[in-house]
Predict the structure.
Amino acid sequence: MPLAWLFRAASTRPPGQAFTLTFAFAAGFFGALLLWLPGSLTPLFGPGVGALYPALVGGLALLWAGTVALTRQVLGPATLWALPFAWVLLDTARGLGPFGFTWGSLGYAFASTPLVQLADLGGLSLVGLLVTLTAAALADRRPRVLLGVAALLLLGALYGLTRPPDAPGTQWALLVQGNVDPRAKVQGRTADELGRYLDLTRAGLAADPAQLVVWPETAAPAAPTSPELARALTALNVPLLLGAPTEQGGYRNSVYAFAGGEVRGRQDKVRLVPFGEYFPGRSQLDGAYRTVFRALGLPALTGTVPGRRLSPLPVGNVLVGALICYESTFPAFARAQVRRGARVLAVVSNDAWFGPSVGAEQHFQMGRVRAIETRRWVLRAGNDGVTAAVAPSGRVTARLPRAVAGALPVSFAQAGAITPYVRWGEWVTALSALVLLGLWLSVREGCFQVSKTREQGPG
C-alpha cells in the first residue's frame, strides 16, 4: 500500500523533509485522481481553464503535506500512530467552509469492499480510519500489530457481510435524464428544454406508472410558480421533485416539490461549487472576472445565492431529503436531511460539465456512500447521468447509460430507522482528536517509546 510507505518514510524524517516528501506524494495522488478535470473542461471553455487543475492539485497537496509535517513536529516519535487520527481530522476539515472539497477522502478507498458498511456506524470517517490504521500497521511491520489490525479488518468485514438484505421496493419513481447541453443552459434557457422533459416524463409514465417523478438539477428553465409551467406540470398528474432556478434576491439553484397543482416546498442549494457557483470577491474583482468569463465564452456570471438551511420536501406521500449535485459529496448534508425526517434521499445533478470523463462516475460513487451512512434509498437524476437508484446497502438497483435522453422507472422503499452515524454524527473525528491529545501528552511526559529500527528509517 503506497500510503504505508508514505507513513513509514514521513515518520522517520525531519518535519521539513516529511513536508517535501508528502507534497510530492499528494501531488501525484491528486494529479491522477483529478486528471479528468482539464480533459473535461478544456473542450468546453478552452485551454485557459486548465490553470484550475494545477492550482487545485497544489492546494490539496499543501494540505496533506502541512498535516504530516505538523504531526511530525508536534508528536515526534509518536508520528506513525498519530497519522491515522490526524488524517481523520484532515479529511473532516476538508469538508468545511466555502472551499470544502471532499474528493480524495481516504474512506472511499474501501467503498467497493464490505468494510464500507461500517459507514452506518461512524460515517465515512470510520471507514477512513480503518484505511489509515491499515497503512500504519503495514508501516510498523511488527507481527502483533499486523495481527491486531487484521483482526479489526476481519471484524469489520464480518459486520459488512452480515447486514440485513435491502427491503424490497414498495413504491415506484420515474427518474428523468434530459441530456441537455450545459453550455446552452448558460447562454439562455429555452422552451425546448421543458418540452423534452415533459415528453420523456409522459412517455415514461405511460409505460410505467409511478408515485413520484424526479427531474435533475436546473431541469426546468423557470420556477414552477410560473403559471405556464405550473399548468404543464399539473397535467402530468403525478408528484414531482424538479430542479429549477429561483429569482428571489438574486439567482438561486433550487429544487421544488410540486403536487396537486401547486408548489409544496422548495430547497435552495446550500453548498455552492467554488468558482463555479460561488466567486470569491466577485464585486471587488469585477474586471478580472469579466475578462476571464469572456475568454471562456461565458456571460458575466454573478454567482448563486446560497440556501440557509436543509429541510425535507413532501413529494406526494414521500418526505424526500434533496441533495443538489455537489452536496451529495458531503456526509453532513445527507445526515442533516435524515435527522429532520427524510425517509428517502434524492440527488439532482448536472454532471454534463464533466463530459465523458470519470469525474461524473467519481461523483456518483461518492454519493452512493450516503445511502449506507443513512440506510436510505437514494434516487439520483442527472442531466446526462448518472441517473440511478441506490439501495440502503449501497447496491445500484437500476441505472441509465450516460449521455442519452431517457426515463428510468425504479422501485424504492421508505425508511424511518436512524443509524448510529445519523444519531451521533462525527464521533470518530472527536475520538481522533482525543487520541491525538493523549499521544501528545505521552510524548511530552516522555512515555512514548519507539523501536530504534523504525526511528532509523526504511531499510
In short: Residues 171-271+306-414 form a domain with the Nitrilase/N-carbamoyl-D-aminoacid amidohydrolase fold (CATH 3.60.110.10). Residues 181 and 234 are 26 Å apart (CA to CA). The radius of gyration is 24 Å. The longest strand covers residues 251-259.
